[in-house]
């Protein structure tokens, strides 16, 4: 269990956060928020690189910091692994020396060099210097170095943020492998909702130094009241799904979701494989009768659960034209429609509606690991 | 080879090198500690400490020599105590020349090292700490290797300054052949002596040669260090 209650004042900003999370043995907890909201400061307090003005930090009952009791364990005794955004490899050492820098800080070593270099595919880089590595390679070595120091928990501070799109795609699968194969709880800091949805099971939403919400990734991303924080442009919902069938003739894969079948462009996954998908709010349309003669492949029925507030504070007329609706299709689904449509359809909480989802609107990129049956059950 | 220079000139060269090496070695640890203090810590009176260290750079060297004489001379504040307790006297000896040279070289060495320390990415030290390295290990395995080019530059500057030291030396330890007469002092003496022009020219040539050799050697070492820490540089 990770416990953090901390206050810290900066000249122009303050952190006052309380986080108590119980990550699964091999789960990722995402700390999500905009740049400058205090995410990095919070993990720096866990690592011991930043000292809170007051508060308490404990991992699995081991107190690392407690201002009341005068406890402040130095970072080198905390057994907290930290992967920095900028890799921070030691430039004067070879890759191998970097990897082994923290090895053997505990008597029992859970991972050995060969295992980690295989996992991260960096075996061929061992004799090189960090200056000769690409950004993606540096970050993989940095991850390996941290794991080989035998931490009890892994903190990752936007490990993909300084990489371009292709490099991100290169690293993501490795982070998924860490999550699935190492049995190490991971706290993953990110300002990208796509990364969070793809990797994490649980998320903590940080806003202006405070915890705005925390809980299951699917629940948080579908809450309309959090929408200014999770992002207007990226607004969407996460659905747990399993592969049901392949439609080879049309090159489609049928997925079983809490709301019914959804067809997506063919995925090379075996039936029964669980996965998550993200549907952007702007890629869903609503109808009050089941439409016929339409090209929409995915039509799911549901009831209107919540209608988003009109944003009066904005003078932006274009923004004011849109409204978000949360539809319960067996799981919450966020939909973005015009306010005019809302009025013309006469939608109210409890209205019966059909959600029209474009097959192509399901981004293959966000098909992550399955959320697990317990998450799916919670929606019903 | 030995005919090139007179025995007195060989003596001046050997003495100069000894004074420069000893003053450089003595100056380095002090300069490193002061550079760390100035680069990493904030404390009351920091500006004063910074100013005092830089004083030899801005006051006439004769003033430094005079102050050393007042402080470290046989009857000086510290010098008298050193003599009474340990029986040590450094005024008018080659050791005194080394002390004078070290004091004059200190600001140059501190500046070079402070720049190097300030340019070290503290993030690397943080990374080392989260990997379980205690402060001493962080210093030895991360900070020191990264500032080593700066230390080398500081050492070269200290060595060169010590070789060239004149004003503070002649004031503090006088111009005693075989004891405190380094090359610049010998050169000065030759210029004052009728018929000493040839000897003065040779001494000047020696000065230039020693300085060039030191500079080339340090550039070679700096390149090797940079290659070992910089990767592709």
UniProtKB/TrEMBL annotation, chain A:
It comes from the Bacteria. Gene3D superfamilies: 2.40.50.100, P-loop containing nucleotide triphosphate hydrolases (3.40.50.300). This is Molybdenum ABC transporter ATP-binding protein. NCBIfam families: modC_ABC. PROSITE patterns: ABC_TRANSPORTER_1, ABC_TRANSPORTER_2, MOP. Residues 293-366 form the Mop domain. Keywords: ATP-binding, Cell inner membrane, Cell membrane, Membrane, Molybdenum, Nucleotide-binding, Translocase, Transport. SUPFAM superfamilies: MOP-like (SSF50331), P-loop containing nucleoside triphosphate hydrolases (SSF52540). InterPro entries: AAA+_ATPase, ABC_transporter-like_ATP-bd, ABC_transporter-like_CS, Mo/tungstate-bd_C_term_dom, ModC_ABC_ATP-bd, Molybdenum_import_ModC, Mop_domain, P-loop_NTPase. GO terms for cellular component: membrane. One of its GO terms (molecular function) is ATP hydrolysis activity.
From TrEMBL, chain B:
It holds the Pfam family BPD_transp_1. GO terms for cellular component: plasma membrane. CDD domains: TM_PBP2 (cd06261). It is a multi-pass membrane protein. Keywords: Cell inner membrane, Cell membrane, Membrane, Molybdenum, Transmembrane, Transmembrane helix, Transport. The chain crosses the membrane at residues 12-39, 51-73, 85-110, 138-160, 199-217. Its main location: membrane. Residues 13-221 form the ABC transmembrane type-1 domain. GO terms for molecular function: molybdate ion transmembrane transporter activity. It is found in: Cell inner membrane; Cell membrane. The keyword Membrane applies. It comes from the Bacteria. NCBIfam families: modB_ABC, PRK09421.1. Belongs to the binding-protein-dependent transport system permease family. CysTW subfamily. Part of the binding-protein-dependent transport system for molybdenum; probably responsible for the translocation of the substrate across the membrane. This is Molybdenum transport system permease.
């Amino acid at each position: 269990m990770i416990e953090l209650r901390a206050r810290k004042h900066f000249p122009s900003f303050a952190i006052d956060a309380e986080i108590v999370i119980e990550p699964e043995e091999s789960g990722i907890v995402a700390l999500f928020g905009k740049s400058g909201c205090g995410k990095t400061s919070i993990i720096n307090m866990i690592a011991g690189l930043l000292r809170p003005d007051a508060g308490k930090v404990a991992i699995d009952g081991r107190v690392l910091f407690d201002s009341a009791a005068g406890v402040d364990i130095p970072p080198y005794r905390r057994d907290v692994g930290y992967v920095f955004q900028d890799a921070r490899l030691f430039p004067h050492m070879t890759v191998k020396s970097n990897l082994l820098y923290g090895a053997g800080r505990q008597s029992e070593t859970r991972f050995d060099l060969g295992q980690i270099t295989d996992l991260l595919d960096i075996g061929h880089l061992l004799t090189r210097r960090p200056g000769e590595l690409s950004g993606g390679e540096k970050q993989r070595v940095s991850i390996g170095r941290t794991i080989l120091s035998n931490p009890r928990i892994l903190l990752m501070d936007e490990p993909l943020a300084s990489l371009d799109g292709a490099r991100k795609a290169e690293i993501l699968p490795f982070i998924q492998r860490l999550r699935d194969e190492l049995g190490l709880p991971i706290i993953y800091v990110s300002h990208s909702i796509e990364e969070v949805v793809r990797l994490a099971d649980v998320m903590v939403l940080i806003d202006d130094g405070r915890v705005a919400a925390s809980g299951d990734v699917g629940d948080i991303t579908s809450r309309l009241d959090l929408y200014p924080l999770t992002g207007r442009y990226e607004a969407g919902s996460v659905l747990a799904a399993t592969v049901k069938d392949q439609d080879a003739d049309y090159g489609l894969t049928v997925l079983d979701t809490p709301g019914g079948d959804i067809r997506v462009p063919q995925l090379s996954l075996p039936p029964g494989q669980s996965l998550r998908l993200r549907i952007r709010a702007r890629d869903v349309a609503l109808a009050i009768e089941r439409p016929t003669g339409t090209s929409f492949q995915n039509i799911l029925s549901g009831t209107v659960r919540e209608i988003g507030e009109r944003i009066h504070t904005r003078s932006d007329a274009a923004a004011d034209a849109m409204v978000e609706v949360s539809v319960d299709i067996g799981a919450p689904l966020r939909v973005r429609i015009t306010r005019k449509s809302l009025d013309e359809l006469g939608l109210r909480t409890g209205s019966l509606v059909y959600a029209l989802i474009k097959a192509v609107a399901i981004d293959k990129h966000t098909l992550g690991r399955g959320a697990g049956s317990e998450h799916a059950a919670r929606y019903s | 080879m030995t005919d090139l220079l007179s025995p007195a000139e060989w003596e001046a060269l050997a003495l100069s090198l000894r004074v420069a090496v000893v003053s450089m070695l003595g100056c380095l640890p002090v300069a490193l500690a002061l550079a760390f203090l100035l680069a990493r810590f904030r404390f009351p009176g920091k500006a004063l400490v910074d100013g005092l260290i830089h004083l030899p750079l801005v006051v006439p060297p004769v003033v430094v020599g005079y102050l050393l004489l007042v402080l470290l001379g046989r009857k000086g504040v510290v010098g008298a105590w050193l003599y009474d307790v340990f029986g040590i006297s450094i005024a008018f000896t080659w050791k005194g020349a080394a002390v004078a040279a070290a004091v004059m070289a200190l600001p140059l060495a501190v500046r070079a090292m402070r720049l190097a320390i300030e340019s070290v990415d503290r993030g690397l030290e943080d990374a080392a700490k989260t990997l379980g390295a205690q402060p001493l290990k962080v210093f030895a395995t991360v900070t020191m290797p990264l500032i080593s080019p700066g230390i080398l530059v500081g050492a070269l500057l200290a060595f060169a300054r010590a070789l060239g030291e004149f004003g503070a030396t002649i004031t503090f330890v006088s111009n005693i052949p075989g004891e405190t007469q380094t090359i610049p002092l010998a050169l000065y003496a030759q210029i004052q002596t009728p018929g000493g022009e040839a000897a003065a020219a040779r001494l000047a040539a020696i000065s230039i040669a020693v300085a060039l050799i030191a500079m080339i050697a340090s550039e070679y070492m700096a390149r090797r260090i940079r290659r070992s820490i910089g990767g592709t540089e």
